[in-house]
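Re: duplicated header lines in exported structure tokens

Our pipeline writes sequence and tokens for each protein into one text file. With two proteins the header for the second block appears twice in some exports. Here is an export where it did not happen, for reference. First protein block:
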Amino acid sequence: MTTRPKEIPVSCHIGIDGGGTKFAVAAFRSQGDPVPFHDTRFDTQKVDAEASDEEKERAYFIDGDNLIQAILEVAVGHEILSISMAVAGNVSDDRTHIVKAGTIVHWERRNIFSLVAEVFGCPVYLGGDGEALVLAEMFYGRAGYKPTLGMIWGTGVGGAFSKFTRRGLEVFATELGHMDTEHHSGNTKPCGCGSFSCLESHIGGKNIEARHGNALNVLPTQWNSYYSKFAWGIEATAMVAKPELVVLGGGAAWKQREMLVPFIEQYLSGLTIVGRPEVVVSSFGESAGTVGALALGRLLTNGEPVPAGR
């Protein structure tokens, strides 16, 4: 009797986008291919900054269990070579945990690296969602070597800036969402950063939903007000960073893209001291987070990148 040899599992890389509304998990055949062959998502536990430590810990472990199950689901039958996570928050220098987060406060100061690495036994990489957005556009999209400002408007607001210098690639996280607008948002609860007047408290998707119940209830004039605040933050950042390209990502930006992009282009048309950047939405739509996580893993695995088309 002849026995058939066992099939060698096909390998894959996992990209994770962790935000205040949902976690998206995708499996990719290689770090050079941004098209996932399997993906899934689950709702993030809703926790306020004022919640007790016990409530935050409980929510964290629920999210953690769901995350592990989602990874197992998308990678079934495959050997996992790496796992990369792009999260909505300020990541520690050693890339093991979130230092501060506005929308997933229950993940703060918890060692995500260990949680996942102990289960799957493969390299695990952690970075910010803004960082991932600009890397996705650099590796697989339209940024190339251009100085690029990536701006996320979703449950929260954030971003990052990337450019090549004599030292190589440099990526800087921005805390645009927590810039003080000097105007009270009207919220009854503070942002995760503790402010009632930061940009995120005004236009973060979580706060818009709290005020209107549903995005469908937002009037055009109200959207214009939100666009103006977002554009104000982009303009302020552009004056310092001097990008050639502004890439918009996040659920709110993607859903509002047809009105948002021309609005921001018009808003930035008055820039004179610095050059006016091109404004686009992410090449990867609502998958920008998982593709960006893949790009983050590719950078941290292989070092200096070669941008798309080079």
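Second protein block, exported in the same file:
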Amino acid sequence: MHGRWILVAALALGLSSAACKKDDPKSTRWDDAGAVIVNIATSSSAAPIAVGTFNKFFPKDGEGGFKRIYSADKENYAEAKLQKDGKEVAQLSISDTERLATAREKFDAATEKVEGYPVLKVGNNQTTALVNKRFQVKVASPTLDHEARKAILATFDLKGLSSL
């Protein structure tokens, strides 16, 4: 009797393992996500951008009547909120795309430029530039139009950022 339960357990384990194979129609795009993340993280030999490095490239506080408040600062990424008259107008960010080829590739189709760098409108609320084929600079705002967001992109020190 005991042997029969072992056989049933072994069969159940074998069937559940077979159901998890990649060619299973129930498999999803998330099945191999762990491997993709590892490949992205190890696909570059570039040193990470240190915390605080990006901050000096954001628009100056007070420029155009705007107040800049940093809200995130970590390796390869920095973010600030842009306020005017005490209200948040936009969210600004700079990120290193060195390890994210797909983030850079979308700029291949860009037809607009700010200070010579390709710019894309992403949805209705974001405008983003790619500096030195590496750094993504983004302005996100539900209230500003694409042209206003491009004008804010031009207040970043894009030339300085390109020298990193």
